[in-house]
Recover the amino acids of this structure.
C-alpha cells in the first residue's frame, strides 16, 4: 500500500490563526493526509502567517529561508510550501517575489468555519464566532488581511458546542477580532473602497468604530450567546477574545459579573492612556470611558482581573502622552499587558496619515518602562479607580 501523504502546519500569530490551523488540519485529514511529526519530514508544509507587525512578517520569511537552506544542505527535495494567513493580503505577485520558495497560496477566507477542526487539546476548544473586522483602528492591518467582519450564525456555533460537549470538552474560548459586537455588524460598508481608492482623506473622514455596528435592542446578541454556551452543564469555563471598550455593553458587564462560568480574566485592549493618541488611533473611546468599564467590572465582581494590549511609539506620541499611559497603568493595575512598539503597516490609515516619527530607541525605552510597570512590578494594593 502506498504510504499516506503527510502535512505539517507551522503557525505564526494569534489565537485566530491557531484556530484556523486546526481547520486547515481538518481539511488535510479529510483529503486522506496524515500529520507529519515535523516540517523536516512532511510532503506539504503549510505556513500560516501573521502580518500584525513588520517583525511577524520577517519571522515568516526567516522561517521559510531556514526551510530552504535545511533541504539544500541535505541535498533533499523540499516539501511543497503553501502560504496562508494574514500575509496573503499583499497579493500573489508581491508574495511570490518576496518569497520565491512558496509553491501555492491559500487565501485564509477559503478556510471555512465549518471545516471540522482537528484539536490537540482534549479539554479546551477555540471556537471562531466571527471573521474579519469592520473597525477603523488606524494602525491595524486586520481589516485588510482578514476582510469584512462576518458573524457566524448562532445555530452553527451551537452545533459545534454540542459536538464538543459530546466529545468531552469542558472549556471554550469564543474567538473573533471584535466579539462583543457579534451579530451586529453592518454589511456592505465601503471601508476598503474608501481606504484603497480615496487617496486624499484626513483623520476627520474616518468613521468611528461604533458606527460600523448596529446598536443592540435589548440584550446584545453576544450576551445571549454567552448564556447559551454556559447553559451546558458540561461546560465549566468560557473565555472570549478580543473585546473592545467601545462595545463592552452594560449587559455584558453584568453578565460577566454574575455568570461565574465566564472566566474571571477579562482581556480588554486599551492601546493608549492618552485621549489625543486614542483619537489618532480612532479607537472611539476616551481614557475615562475605559476606566469606567474597569470600575464597573470590578464592582460587578471584585474577583475579576483585567489584561490589556498597548502600542507605544504611535506617530506623534509625546512624552506627556506616553506619561498618560504610564499613569493609566498605575491606576488600573492590569494583571498582564501585551506591549507592542508601533509598526507602520502599508495600506493602513495611520500609515497614510502620519509619519512613523518616534525613533526606535524611544519606542524601546517606552516599551521597557511599561513592561516593567505592568508585568514585573507587583503592586501590593490595587488602587481605587475613579
Ligand atoms: N503596530 C504595533 N502593534 C500593533 N497591534 C496591532 N497593529 C499594530 C501595529 N501596526 C497590536 C495591538 C493589538 C494587538 C493584537 O497587536 O495592540 O491589540
Ligand atoms: Fe484591528 Fe481594531 Fe479590528 Fe482589533 S478592532 S482587529 S485593533 S481594526
Amino acid at each position: 500500500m502506498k504510504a499516506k501523504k503527510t502535512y505539517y502546519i507551522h503557525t505564526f500569530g494569534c489565537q485566530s490563526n491557531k484556530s484556523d490551523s486546526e481547520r486547515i488540519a481538518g481539511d488535510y485529514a479529510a483529503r486522506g493526509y496524515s500529520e507529519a511529526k515535523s516540517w523536516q519530514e512532511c510532503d506539504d508544509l503549510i505556513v500560516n502567517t501573521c502580518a500584525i507587525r513588520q517583525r511577524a512578517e520577517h519571522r515568516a520569511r526567516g522561517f521559510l529561508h531556514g526551510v530552504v537552506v535545511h533541504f539544500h544542505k541535505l541535498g533533499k527535495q523540499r516539501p511543497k510550501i503553501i502560504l496562508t494567513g494574514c500575509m496573503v493580503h499583499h497579493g500573489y505577485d508581491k508574495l511570490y517575489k518576496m518569497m520565491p520558495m512558496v509553491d501555492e497560496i491559500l487565501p485564509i477566507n477559503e478556510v471555512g468555519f465549518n471545516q471540522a477542526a482537528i484539536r490537540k487539546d482534549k479539554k479546551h476548544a477555540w471556537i471562531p464566532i466571527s471573521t474579519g473586522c469592520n473597525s477603523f483602528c488606524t494602525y491595524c492591518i486586520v481589516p485588510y488581511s482578514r476582510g469584512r467582519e462576518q458573524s457566524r450564525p448562532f445555530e452553527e456555533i451551537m452545533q459545534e458546542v454540542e459536538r464538543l460537549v459530546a466529545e468531552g470538552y469542558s472549556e471554550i474560548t469564543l474567538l473573533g477580532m471584535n466579539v462583543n459586537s457579534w451579530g451586529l455588524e453592518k454589511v456592505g460598508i465601503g471601508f476598503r473602497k474608501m481606504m484603497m481608492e480615496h487617496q486624499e482623506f484626513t483623520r476627520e473622514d474616518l468613521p468611528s468604530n461604533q458606527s460600523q455596528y448596529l446598536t443592540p435592542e435589548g440584550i446584545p446578541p453576544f450576551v445571549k450567546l454567552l448564556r447559551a454556551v454556559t447553559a451546558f452543564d458540561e461546560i465549566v469555563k468560557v473565555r472570549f477574545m478580543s473585546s473592545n471598550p467601545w462595545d463592552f455593553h452594560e449587559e455584558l458587564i453584568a453578565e460577566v459579573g454574575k455568570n461565574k462560568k465566564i472566566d474571571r480574566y477579562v482581556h480588554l485592549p486599551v492601546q493608549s492612556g492618552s485621549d489625543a493618541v486614542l483619537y489618532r488611533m480612532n479607537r472611539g473611546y476616551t481614557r475615562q470611558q475605559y476606566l469606567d468599564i474597569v470600575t464597573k467590572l470590578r464592582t460587578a465582581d471584585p474577583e475579576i482581573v483585567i489584561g490589556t494590549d498597548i502600542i507605544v511609539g504611535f506617530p506623534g506620541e509625546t512624552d506627556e502622552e506616553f506619561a498618560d499611559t504610564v499613569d493609566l497603568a498605575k491606576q488600573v493595575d492590569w494583571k498582564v499587558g501585551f506591549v507592542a512598539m508601533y509598526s507602520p503597516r502599508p495600506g493602513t490609515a495611520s500609515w497614510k496619515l502620519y509619519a512613523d516619527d518616534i525613533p526606535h530607541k524611544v519606542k524601546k525605552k517606552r516599551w521597557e518602562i511599561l513592561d516593567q510597570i505592568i508585568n514585573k512590578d507587583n503592586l501590593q494594593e490595587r488602587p481605587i479607580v475613579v
